[in-house]
Amino acid sequence: MKPNPFFKLSIAILFLLFSAAASFAQPAQLTPQQRELADYIKSHYTKSEMMIPMRDGVKLFVCIYEPKDKKQKYPSCSNRTPYSVGPYGPDKYKTSLGPDELFARAGYIFVYGDVRGRYLSEGGYEDVRPYIPNKKGIRSMKQPTPIDTVDWLIKNVPNNNGRVGVYGISYPGFYTSMAGIDGHPAIKPSRPRHPCLIGFTATTIITTARCFWRRIFSFFTGFGQPRPVPTSNNDYVKPFNYGTQDGYKFLFRHGRSKEFRRRV
Fold it and tell me: Is 248 helix (H, G, I), strand (E, B) or coil?
């Protein structure tokens, strides 16, 4: 079989997809360098937690890290994720901020948001939510009521300079991409990395990542379970009963047998 030229890229993207689920967890043991950065963040930033109302009344949870130095205005960095923005609690801080440790030292307002229907945000979750065109008021900086997270932030967070950068990788990369489509005029830079786009993700899973079937299935048996109520944990997720410890046997027994065998 001729190697697919996108195979290596697909493997990398799938690795990012599955590993990102645990990216919010803080390391149990910090290196001296990580500890120094964590202490710097606590001494130079204040943290607050907010529920931001959307057009339909659903409120989305965000945690905001603001520089304690109020002598100037700061640009904002926004990251939206389905994997939790923990640790939760105004006195519990992340040990790093932004896409790189230099961002925390440079001085930004950092905003982390749970997407609709995940963790502490209200509403129902939809995997890779479709783009909604022609949203009324989306381009108006003078809208009298909050129209989206960015609009709320620039009107309610002190010392912001009216400029917002969005970034993310994998699922957060998808939300970064969506923020750039008909985006709020305050959004300036946008940096999506390996965003999960439904067509590409489906094609990757079906045609080029045969060796990842078991991990793909395992990921979505947990990620795809509906959340009953807003929560700061994923204790509601029930383990899937495979009926066997042999993953190879399970896939051949319950998968698309003929097609799966032909491709393998």
Answer: helix
pLDDT digits (tens, 9 = 90+) for 52-73: 998 888 999 999 999 999 999 9
The label of the residue with tokens 């990395």 reads 193
In 54-140, which ranges are E strands? 59-67, 74-81, 109-114
CA angle 255, 240, 8 (to 5 degrees): 55
Q: What are the backbone dihedrals phi and psi of residue 113, each rounded to the nearest 5 degrees, phi first?
A: -125, 135
Using DSSP's 3-state secondary structure scheme, residue 159 falls into: coil
Beta partners for 112?
Answer: 63, 79
Give the tens place of pLDDT for each residue, 102-154. Answer: 999 999 999 999 999 999 999 999 888 887 776 554 444 444 444 588 999 99
The number of C-alpha atoms within 13 Å of 123 and in the hemisphere containing its C-beta is: 22
193-237 pLDDT, tens digit per residue, is: 888 765 444 445 544 455 566 677 778 888 888 899 999 999 999
Q: What share of the chain is helix, strand, coil (3-state, %, to 5)?
A: 35, 20, 45
